[in-house]
Amino acid sequence: MTATTTLPPDIPIFPLPNVVLFPNVFLPLHIFERRYRNMVRDALDGDRIIGMVLLREGAAEESAPQVYPIGCAGVITHAENLPDGRYNIVLRGVEKFRVRTEALRNAYRVASVDALPERTAADERARLRSARQRVEALLDRRLRDVGSESTVPREMADDHLVNALAQYLEFEPVEKQLLLEREGVLARCESLVDLLEMRVAAAGSSHPRPRVQ
Fold this sequence. Notes:
This protein is α+β, with helices and mostly antiparallel strands. The chain has helices at residues 34-45, 125-145, 158-168, 173-181, 185-206, and strands at 10-16, 26-31, 49-54, 70-81, 87-105, 108-116. The chain folds into two domains: 10-116, Roll (Archaeosine Trna-guanine Transglycosylase, Chain: A, domain 4); 122-206, no CATH class. Helix 2 (125-145) runs parallel beside helix 5 (185-206) and helix 3 crosses helix 5. The relative contact order is 0.17. The model is unreliable at 207-213 (pLDDT under 50).
């Protein structure tokens, strides 16, 4: 399955309080709850697709926890079935979706979804490249401030880099959710610039300023 393949109309969803998946980014997961073991087993027997969704704050305490309606489907690229029934799996994000309705099946949640494909138009490519360069400059500045060298992979495609940074940088889960919900990679990259500028400004203001005599 590729990032441009249409999602099936119904997919299992895996709600977590602190994980947001993005298209074309890999996510390792350890599966231990029985209902989610069932989910992984059924997915492996079928199309290997699982939809990742973020739990709303405080929802974990509810009997039917609420989730954000926008998630990202992933395909299982690696699965290790442990002797006690647990799984170690790796998902690769393939496509965003919007949850329309939910039902229970085999103790886990299955959602009817609308796919939300993301494609960067040709006339947006130059803006995306410029925004990416701004992101790289901000990351380089943050790393220099802490005495580290830049590890941003310059050879990575713009779309893939933006989504990888959105998933792996140390933002709050809700901030990552807002990045996922942006309409397209260009808008997501521009929001990344805004978030990083705020982090750089906050880090700069935390340094002691020299006193003027």
